[in-house]
Amino acid sequence: MERAAAQIGAKVRKQEEKAPTPSGPVEQQFPFGATWILADLGGKSIGGDAPSFNLDDKLRAVGFGGCNTFSMSLYPIKEQKLAAGSIAMTRKTCGKEIDDTEHTMLVTLHSLPKWHLESNGDLTVSGVGGTLRFKRGL
Hints:
Elements: H1 2-18, E1 35-41, E2 44-45, E3 52-55, E4 60-64, E5 69-77, E6 81-84, E7 88-89, H2 96-109, E8 114-117, E9 123-127, E10 130-136
Antiparallel strand pairs: 1-2, 1-3, 1-10, 3-4, 4-5, 5-6, 5-7, 8-9, 9-10
């Protein structure tokens, strides 16, 4: 009886050794210090002065929403999400289309969105406001 239990135990250990270890998707490192320029919002191209932001290594995002400048704390966290602090911004109005784009971008960045660096170097951010695709600036 003991010998049978030992043989079963040895078989189980062998199977565990052969079993592949689970590996989920590899988390990417957020590229601090890069300037990101909004290329499209939900597949719709952005015209005019494109919104942009830069996230430094002190986790401070500063940017331009298309009409107003803004700053906020922005933290890349597990599962490739972004957690945001309060937004400080100027309060100009520049017309419905520009104001709506700015609002959507800031709501999306502030909604605990998921982010992903694409193979072509673009940054995609998806959250409550929609999907934002940024191109890396100079």
